[in-house]
Write a structure and sequence with these properties.
By secondary structure, this protein is of the alpha+beta class. It has 4 helices and 11 strands; from the N terminus they run H-H-H-E-E-E-E-E-E-E-E-E-H-E-E.
Length: 193
């Protein structure tokens, strides 16, 4: 019995032997492979979540010009909600029309009659609109849209806040509901980036 305790036996050779080292090496490699698989599966889940968040539910769009000044300036980043079903007058929306992206404020929707008069007055359903938050007149673009304009049920009339020279429904006409990419829900100011 005393020889077994003091003398190196099979159990002590097995702990440091070549077979045990090979097993430890293989376990280490399998652990590393498992860690790599875990990392890539988490990365894939994160990419899918980002895709769902910013290409299906929300969208990000930089403001290209000063057409919405003073509320939204060139370079500001707009976060818009793509799944909005109720779009109302005074909502700011991002639209995709004729291959270009625009931003504007809805002033009239389906069933409304819109007119921009020669004296730069906006009329909706024969009523002169008094827009307390808009600081500019609404000039008529003679060559683009014929007034009065009767909107179909799925159409909207969109104007920019900075009315002089802005490209909006006076330029490209009524906007269909399927051309609206989403409703702007917040602005990230250029100065904060």
């Amino acid at each position: 019995m005393s020889q077994k305790k003091g003398s190196p036996g099979k159990s002590s050779q097995a702990k440091g032997g070549p077979v045990d080292q090979a097993i430890r090496k293989r376990r280490r490699r399998l652990s590393q492979i498992s860690d790599i698989k875990s990392f890539f599966s988490r990365l894939l889940v994160m990419i899918i979540m980002i895709y769902i968040m910013f290409w299906i539910i929300f969208g990000l769009q930089p403001m290209a010009n000063d057409d919405m000044k003073p509320r939204i300036s060139a370079g500001d980043l707009m976060l818009f909600y793509r799944l909005e079903t109720r779009i109302n007058s005074d909502d700011v929306v991002v639209i995709h029309k004729d291959g270009k992206t625009y931003t504007g404020r809805i002033v009239a929707k389906g069933g409304d009659k819109v007119e921009v008069t020669d004296d730069s007055t906006l009329k909706i359903n024969d009523s002169t609109m008094i827009e307390s938050d808009i600081f500019y007149s609404t000039p008529k673009y003679e060559e683009y849209v014929q007034y009065p304009l009767q909107l179909a049920e799925d159409e909207y009339f969109i104007l920019c806040d900075y009315r002089n020279g802005a490209k909006d429904s006076r330029y490209f006409g009524a906007v269909k509901k399927n051309e609206i990419m989403g409703k702007v829900i917040t602005i990230i100011r250029r100065s904060n980036l």
